[in-house]
Amino acid sequence: METGRSSESPEVPKKGKSKTPRKPKDSILKQKSPAEFFADNKNIAGFDNPGKCLYTTVRELVENALDSAESISELPVVEITIEEIGRGKFNSMIGLADHERRDEALYDDFETAKAREKRLAKEARVLEIQAKNVALGKKVKDPAATKAVKGREASYYRVTCKDNGRGMPHDDIPNMFGRVLSGTKYGLKQTRGKFGLGAKMALIWSKMSTGLPIEITSSMNSQNYTSFCRLDIDIHKNVPHIHIHEKGENKERWHGAEIQIVIEGNWTTYRSKILHYMRQMAVITPYAQFLFQFVSDSPEKNVTIRFTRRTDIMPSVPLETKYHPSAVDILLIKRLITETSKQTLLQFLQHEFVNIGKSHAERLIGEMGPDFSPKMSVKSLTPQQIVRIHQLFRQAKFDDPSGDILSPAGEYNLRLGIIKELHPDMVATFSGSAQVFEGHPFIVEAGVSIGGKDVKQGLNVFRFANRIPLLFEQGADVVTRTAMKRINWNSYKINQTQDKIGVFVSIVSTKIPFKGTGKEYIGDDISEIASAVKLFSNAAISSNQKL
C-alpha cells in the first residue's frame, strides 16, 4: 500500500506576510485659519486665475482708496499703476539666478520638428487660399494671428495704488493687511467691499504666486511722520509676518496711503476688463480723479489714461445702522445678546433694533408668553426663548427701515458721469425712493443714454452695486434681463438693435443680494428689486423722451 499524503489533505500555507488588515489610524481633526481657507478657495473672492487676480487686485485697491478719501470728505485722487515685470527682473528681485534650459523636450512649450512642419504647412495653405481669393476679387479677412505654442510661464506685475485718503494708524497697519477677517467694514451699513477682505486677498495671492511681501506707506492728516511697513502673512496662523515697520519724516504733510504689491497676473487677457472697470468707476464717481498707467519694457504697450473730475459734489457718507427685526436670524440674535451692554429684555429690544419703541417692545414681550418679562435679564435667555423671539420677529409687523442711511450716487452725479465718459446725444436719469427687501433698505437709480463715444449698437448695460461696477455674469443679472426682456423699447421709438443705447442702473443697500460665490450679479428672482429696476428704468426713458 502506497503511503503518502492524500490528495484531499489540506495544503500547508506558504510562509509570507500576514494578510491581516491594518487598523486605520485615528483621524485627526484639523482646523484651518481664515487665511488658509481663502487661500484654498480663492475663487470665492474673485481670484480665479492670474488674469482675474490682476483685475480683482486693482479693483480692491481702488475701492479701498475711494472709501478712505470719502470717509474724511476729501475729493478722491487715485493713482493706479500696473508695471510689467519680466522673468529676469523678477528673478533678480527674489535673488534667483537665471537658468538656461538644458532639456528642451522637458518643457510644455516644446514643439517637435514634425509638429512645426505641420503647422507651417497649414499656414502656407491658408496664405495660398487667400491669394486665390484676392485674384478673384473676393473680400479677404485679415489673417488671424498665429497661435503661439502654449506655455505656462508666469507673468508678473507690480501693482501700485496711491490715494489722498484718511491713512492708517501706525500700530494698526500689520493687522489691517496681515490678518484675514479683521477690519473696519463689519458693521451694518452700505459698503463697497463684497467680502471685507480688501487688500488681504491680494497679499495671500502674492504669497502664493511670488512669495514677495506687500509694502505700505501711510500718513494720517496732521501727522508729522509717515509709516512704512513691509510684511507678508503667515497663512496657517493668520497673523502678519513683519519685515519692516518704521516711521519716517513727513515733510510734505501728505496724508493717504500708497500700497505696492507684486503678483502673478495676465494683462493681455484682462486688459479690456480693467480698462472698462476704470471707465465705469469714473462714470459712477465723477467727483473723483483717476490716473491709470500700464508700464511695459516695450513702450508701444504703455497705457496712460486720465479720468478727470467733473464735479465737487460728493454723495453723503453712508451711516451705520442697527438691524431691522425682520432681517435677523437666531445666530445674529445670540451675537447681539452677547455684545449688548443693556441689562433687561425691554432695553435690548429698544436699543439693539430699529423701529422698536418702548410701547412696541412691551407688546412684543407680552406676546412672547408667560416665561418673558420686560425686566428679565437678557443674558439669561435660554436657547428656546431666543428661538421664540426669532419666530415672533418673522411674524410680527414692523415699520420699514429708513433709506436715509444709504448713500446713492445721486441723479446729478450719475448724469454727469455718463456725459463725461460717453458723450451721448441724449441722456436722462431717475432716482427712486427707498424700497425694502428682507428688512434691508435699497435705492435704485437709473439712466438711459442714446448715442455716444465708444458705444456699440444695441443695448449697452452698465451695472453698479453700492457704487462699484459689476462686469461679470451679466446675462443672469436682474438689470440685463429687465433691459432686454421687460422694457418695450419700440413704444419709445427706440430701435433696440440699431440704436446705441446705454442703460445704467445703480443699486445701493445695506445688503446687496448677490448671487453666486463671486458676488458678480444680482439675481432676477427678487421681485422687489426686479420691479424697482423696471419702474425706474422706464421712468428714465420717459424723461429722455421729453427732452
From TrEMBL:
<dbReference type="GO" id="GO:0005634">
    <property type="term" value="C:nucleus"/>
</dbReference>
<keyword id="KW-0539">Nucleus</keyword>
<dbReference type="InterPro" id="IPR020568">
    <property type="entry name" value="Ribosomal_Su5_D2-typ_SF"/>
</dbReference>
<dbReference type="GO" id="GO:0009330">
    <property type="term" value="C:DNA topoisomerase type II (double strand cut, ATP-hydrolyzing) complex"/>
</dbReference>
<feature type="region of interest" description="Disordered">
    <location>
        <begin position="1"/>
        <end position="32"/>
    </location>
</feature>
<feature type="domain" description="DNA topoisomerase VI subunit B transducer">
    <location>
        <begin position="401"/>
        <end position="535"/>
    </location>
</feature>
<feature type="binding site">
    <location>
        <position position="163"/>
    </location>
    <ligand>
        <name>ATP</name>
    </ligand>
</feature>
<comment type="similarity">
    <text>Belongs to the TOP6B family.</text>
</comment>
<feature type="binding site">
    <location>
        <begin position="193"/>
        <end position="200"/>
    </location>
    <ligand>
        <name>ATP</name>
    </ligand>
</feature>
<dbReference type="InterPro" id="IPR015320">
    <property type="entry name" value="TopoVI_B_transducer"/>
</dbReference>
<dbReference type="GO" id="GO:0003918">
    <property type="term" value="F:DNA topoisomerase type II (double strand cut, ATP-hydrolyzing) activity"/>
</dbReference>
<keyword id="KW-0413">Isomerase</keyword>
<feature type="binding site">
    <location>
        <position position="519"/>
    </location>
    <ligand>
        <name>ATP</name>
    </ligand>
</feature>
<dbReference type="GO" id="GO:0006265">
    <property type="term" value="P:DNA topological change"/>
</dbReference>
<feature type="binding site">
    <location>
        <position position="64"/>
    </location>
    <ligand>
        <name>ATP</name>
    </ligand>
</feature>
<protein>
    <recommendedName>
        <fullName>DNA topoisomerase 6 subunit B</fullName>
        <ecNumber>5.6.2.2</ecNumber>
    </recommendedName>
</protein>
<keyword id="KW-0238">DNA-binding</keyword>
<comment type="function">
    <text>Component of the DNA topoisomerase VI involved in chromatin organization and progression of endoreduplication cycles. Relaxes both positive and negative superturns and exhibits a strong decatenase activity. The B subunit binds ATP.</text>
</comment>
<keyword id="KW-0799">Topoisomerase</keyword>
<dbReference type="InterPro" id="IPR005734">
    <property type="entry name" value="TopoVI_B"/>
</dbReference>
<keyword id="KW-0547">Nucleotide-binding</keyword>
<keyword id="KW-0067">ATP-binding</keyword>
<dbReference type="Pfam" id="PF13589">
    <property type="entry name" value="HATPase_c_3"/>
</dbReference>
<dbReference type="GO" id="GO:0003677">
    <property type="term" value="F:DNA binding"/>
</dbReference>
<dbReference type="InterPro" id="IPR014721">
    <property type="entry name" value="Ribsml_uS5_D2-typ_fold_subgr"/>
</dbReference>
<dbReference type="InterPro" id="IPR036890">
    <property type="entry name" value="HATPase_C_sf"/>
</dbReference>
<feature type="binding site">
    <location>
        <begin position="184"/>
        <end position="185"/>
    </location>
    <ligand>
        <name>ATP</name>
    </ligand>
</feature>
<comment type="subunit">
    <text>Homodimer. Heterotetramer of two TOP6A and two TOP6B subunits.</text>
</comment>
<dbReference type="Pfam" id="PF09239">
    <property type="entry name" value="Topo-VIb_trans"/>
</dbReference>
<dbReference type="InterPro" id="IPR010979">
    <property type="entry name" value="Ribosomal_uS13-like_H2TH"/>
</dbReference>
<dbReference type="GO" id="GO:0005524">
    <property type="term" value="F:ATP binding"/>
</dbReference>
